[in-house]
Specification:
The complex is a heterodimer. By secondary structure, chain A is mainly alpha-helical. Chain A is built from 14 helices and 2 strands, in the order H-H-E-E-H-H-H-H-H-H-H-H-H-H-H-H. In chain A, helix 4 packs antiparallel against helix 11 and helix 5 packs across helix 8. Chain A starts with a helix and ends with a helix. The longest helix of chain B has about 35 residues. The chains are: A mainly alpha, B mainly alpha. Chains A and B meet through helix 2, helix 4, helix 5, helix 6 and helix 8 of A and helix 1, helix 2, helix 4, helix 5 and helix 6 of B.
Chain lengths: ~300, ~280
């Protein structure tokens, strides 16, 4: 064995070591990521409750999903989180970054204040916000409303307000990350561009529209994708802010991931849950592919 | 951008600074209320002033005595530490090989690992659960941490960073007769410590705050991690908000401490991943 190794060329020796070093990581990626992906795809074609053997049912789960009003409710909720949450969170974080970039005094400290919510345990923060939304005399939001002479709001207990009430902490938690990335993007724009524009006497808004935003395009696209994926996968906050983690009231706040969790691990309908994870996968893939396309077409 | 005027005399700058700073203070108000309430006795609970009249640690003492928070804390700490050590070692080793070795199949291996970044965790939890059930991993540390022992993101990040290590240095070490592993460990790895520190912090925090998989794989209170324990604890104490805030504070304070100590590295890490990703 040793003699065989010694008689190899340098290149062949390297290949031997490469495969030795990669053996464990490769085994991991194949057995913990790639194989399970195929397995989920197969489970989505079966009827299975973990106890009986899997029964192959073809595309039945997908047909059921198509005709299931709960699925469409959940699907619509997921896109509400995305289509309301993503623009607000990107708009707010850009605004803060844009202005924070213009001030120097305590800039790092202010940036840190915005960033802190991003790092903390989402489950814990969900309970803090849930407390804020409680009725008088417990919840601070209603106490403020009543103090200002408005009527109390039901927030998490209302079918129309609950989704927005969960979205608020989700946006709050993500702002800091986006601000830090936006700030780095803003700093990467050479000062000469701004100086040239100022010499030409161009106004602040024109500079923003014609120089800053176009040059930030890659940063914006990156954040659109990261933020979209985050909202499409929302789970921790909804689980912790709704009664018994059910995504109520009346499924009005239940996102796709929570539905998958409930189907698979409370109802043990593995096949049906797997089919819904396939839908999530396709949606996430589409978001990423659209971004790559947009990045290429300059 | 640099300013063409004196910011101290420019009222617009002062207005901007004030608004942005106020926004920052609003951002951390939830933490302030959480900690303030955790220090209040039950009598003071409905008094929403930020500084308690008679601050007390009784909630914390009660929490540590009557719930299993200490155990959950230990579980989370052990799991996050082992996961981080494993990710640092294997991700940098794989990233190093994919960056510095020339061999047949390198491109395919890299694409295969990169493609795993596209697979969301939610799609894998069913097979992971079945696997854990069949192999007896439910309710064990290993069961909670096995999916995160190596990450595609880390391999990708480290591969990018090993590009900054000159090939000549590695060739020189090879001529000096260092073994392949020692070249990696003693020559290349010390040169990428900024990337390692960022990866370490994010892996640790990611593990500390992880919720979905630990929730699925544990069903006995002694094996919960902090977030799962907090969810079950708060579900039981639904109306005792001072206890829930105490639990939330205990879950959050370590992440705040990590941030305060390592702020520089964390911000740099976010920028690195943002720019590279």
């Amino acid at each position: 064995m040793l003699g065989w190794y010694r008689s190899r060329t340098v290149g062949q020796k390297q290949a031997v070591w490469a495969w030795i070093f990669l053996a464990l990581p490769l085994f991991f990626f194949v057995s913990i990521r790639l194989f399970p992906t195929g397995y989920t795809t197969y489970v989505s074609l079966t009827d299975w409750n973990l106890l009986r053997p899997k029964a192959f049912v073809g595309l039945d789960n997908y047909v059921r999903l198509w005709n299931d009003p709960v699925f469409w409710q959940v699907f619509a909720n997921t896109f509400k989180y995305l289509l309301i949450g993503m623009p607000i969170s990107l708009g707010l974080s850009f605004m803060v970054a844009y202005y924070l970039d213009q001030v120097r005094f305590l800039q790092g400290t202010i940036r840190a204040l915005y960033f802190i919510p991003f790092l903390t345990t989402a489950a814990a923060m969900a309970w803090v916000w849930r407390w804020f939304y409680q009725p008088v005399p417990i919840g601070i939001f209603n106490l403020i409303l009543v103090d200002l002479g408005f009527s109390q709001q039901p927030f998490l207990r209302s079918t129309s307000q609950a989704l927005g009430s969960i979205l608020a902490p989700a946006i709050w938690a993500g702002l800091g990350f986006q601000i830090v990335v936006f700030l780095a993007g803003l700093r990467a724009i050479p000062d000469t561009y701004y100086e040239a524009a100022r010499i030409d006497g161009v106004g602040r808004w024109t500079i923003l529209r014609e120089i800053t935003l176009p040059l930030l395009r890659p940063t914006i696209l990156f954040l659109v994708v990261v933020s979209s994926i985050g909202f499409l996968r929302i789970f921790d906050k909804v689980y912790n802010m709704t009664v018994d983690g059910k995504g109520g009231p009346l499924n009005m706040t239940r996102p796709l991931v929570l539905n998958i969790y409930q189907l698979a691990f409370t109802d043990y309908r593995m096949g049906y849950a797997a089919a819904q994870t396939m839908v999530l996968f396709v949606v996430l893939l589409a978001v990423t592919v659209i971004q790559l396309r947009a990045l290429r077409s300059k | 951008m640099t300013l063409g005027f004196d910011p101290r005399r420019d009222p617009r700058k002062i207005a901007i600074w004030t608004l942005v700073a106020l926004g920052g203070v609003v951002m951390v108000m939830p933490f302030a209320f959480m900690i303030s309430t955790s220090l209040k006795s039950r009598e003071e609970l409905y008094d929403l002033r930020l500084f308690p009249l008679a601050p007390t640690l009784e909630n914390y003492i009660y929490l540590f005595r009557e719930s299993r928070f200490v155990r959950w804390f230990l579980n989370s700490f052990v799991i996050a530490s082992i996961s981080t050590a494993s990710v640092l070692f294997f991700d940098s080793l794989a990233g190093y090989v994919l960056c510095k070795y020339r061999f047949k199949g390198r491109q395919i291996v890299f694409i295969a690992i990169l493609s795993t970044l596209m697979i969301p965790t939610e799609m894998l939890v069913i097979p992971w659960y079945v696997m854990s059930k069949n192999l007896g991993w439910l309710n064990t540390y290993w069961g909670i941490m096995f999916p995160g022992m190596i990450t595609g993101f880390g391999v990708f990040l480290m591969k990018q960073f090993f590009e900054t290590v000159p090939d000549a240095l590695i060739d020189a070490a090879r001529i000096d007769g260092l073994s392949e592993f020692r070249i990696f460990w003693e020559v290349a790895l010390p040169l990428v410590t900024p990337a390692l520190s960022a990866l370490a912090i994010f892996t640790f925090l990611g593990s500390w705050t992880a919720f979905l998989w630990p929730l699925i794989v544990t069903n006995s209170a002694s094996n919960y991690t902090v977030p799962v324990g907090l969810a079950s604890f708060s579900g039981e104490f639904t109306t005792e908000w001072n206890m829930i805030m105490t639990g939330a504070a205990v879950a959050t304070i370590p992440t705040l401490v990590v941030f305060i100590l390592l702020q520089k590295y964390i911000i740099r890490g976010v920028i690195l991943s943002g720019v590279k990703g």
